[in-house]
Amino acid sequence: MTILIIEDDPKTGDYLRKGLKEHGYVVDIARDGVDGLYRALEQDYELVVLDVMLPGLDGWEVIRQLRAKRDVPIIFLSARDEVNDRIRGLRLGADDYLVKPFSFVELELRIRTILRRGSTREIEVFEVADLRLDVVRRKVTRDGVEIPLTNKEFMLLHLLLRRQGEVLTRTQIASEVWDMNFDSDTNVVDVAVKRLRAKVDAPFERKLIATVRSVGYSLSVDP
């Protein structure tokens, strides 16, 4: 599931991106209203988290222009806590309005609820061969045996399952899981894949995680 955060405060934006990525979302950030509106119109996001007080265009104008062309779900996340502000946001077409400071758990639950109401449901359980990953319960099993994973290992496996059959480069994996630009001198991706294989593949006859030489990795159900 892809989410766009339009938030000018770096600390809040980075906190949201980190938390949502750990819950399996693909997250982009725009730091002002102009860039945010452009991204929301040009790309197919499942949901937008929108601040009100933004440089360039404020949140009111962003949602007004966005609603004229797109029907993407929008959650206002703002320090403006007056009742009139909430009413204004909802009348402009927001699906929800959450006031700062906020509980991340509450925000994530509201996002999940809104996405469930739409035509697109987030996949909560992935199953490939005898491998099963439950996103909500953060539980991984293979052939019925539970496999304990670290947070990064879980995120890595979740990414491979979401994009199963695709060959993911080390750069893509580093960006999605570690939120970093890949340095060719850094073997963090290779080490993480090796550790994940030791838990998910090594104890079982059928191997699911494949290395594509000079490119990256993929998870496939091919024999």
TrEMBL record:
PROSITE patterns: OMPR_PHOB, RESPONSE_REGULATORY. GO terms for molecular function: phosphorelay response regulator activity; transcription cis-regulatory region binding. Residues 123-221 form the OmpR/PhoB-type domain. Residues 123-221 bind DNA. Residues 2-115 form the Response regulatory domain. It holds the Pfam family Response_reg. Keywords: DNA-binding, Phosphoprotein, Transcription, Transcription regulation, Two-component regulatory system. GO terms for biological process: regulation of DNA-templated transcription. The modification 4-aspartylphosphate is found at D51. One of its GO terms (cellular component) is protein-DNA complex. The keyword Transmembrane helix does not apply. This is Response regulator. It comes from Segnochrobactrum spirostomi.
